[in-house]
Design brief:
Blueprint (H helix, E strand, L loop, with lengths): L1 E14 L3 E2 L2 E2 H11 L4 E6 L2 E2 L7 E2 L10 E8 L1 H14 L6 E12 L6
Antiparallel strand pairs: 1-7, 1-8, 2-3, 4-7, 5-6
Length: 115
């Protein structure tokens, strides 16, 4: 079975060392999303990148403590993504970072989206 719909993909760009609520932000956000029944989240760890300060962060065997780039991707309805952005702002989850969003077409396979 195949089901198609329109959703919003929110990308949150942060650093690996960012924290909130006593946890790494890349752990805190997915846990919060799961407990609040969001549709899906993926955390990606970059091997190299730079932000507004133009300081390059990269994975290096000699420097294991580098602040690598993290991207948290969240997919859900426009209403739920808007509610999430309000919470991010209200609770100041992100000290320094970037958020992008775009409408996406979702294609789910299997019964109720499950295989």
């Amino acid at each position: 079975m195949k089901e198609e719909s329109i959703a919003v993909l929110l990308r949150i760009f942060i650093g690996e060392s960012d924290h909130f609520g006593g946890k790494h932000l890349y752990e805190y956000i997915p846990e919060w999303l799961k407990s609040n029944h969001y549709s899906g989240v993926t955390v990606l760890r970059g091997i190299e990148g730079f932000g507004h300060a133009s300081k390059i962060h990269k994975s290096d065997i000699l420097d294991l403590s580098s602040d690598l780039p993290i991207i948290i991707e969240v997919v859900d309805t426009e209403e739920r993504i808007n509610a999430l952005k309000e919470i991010i702002d209200k609770e100041n989850w992100i000290g320094s970072g970037l958020i992008t969003e775009e409408k996406v077409k979702i294609v789910r396979y299997g019964k109720n989206g499950n295989k």
